[in-house]
Design brief:
single chain, mainly alpha, 83% helix, rod-shaped, signal
């Protein structure tokens, strides 16, 4: 059981890291100079994909 718990914890950590990377890439892309940066960010599916 301990091995299963460790494997699941590692899988969760990897999923969290991937979601954080996807969100960071979406923010970097959407927050280019100009007006409407927040609106562009919210419209990107990658931003929401990292939230769930």
């Amino acid at each position: 059981m301990t091995t299963v718990a460790i494997v699941l914890a590692l899988a969760g950590a990897v999923a969290y890291a991937l979601a954080a990377h996807v969100q960071h890439a979406a923010v970097r892309t959407a927050c280019a100079p100009g007006r409407g940066r927040i609106a562009r960010l919210v419209r990107q599916r990658r931003w929401f994909g990292g939230c769930c």
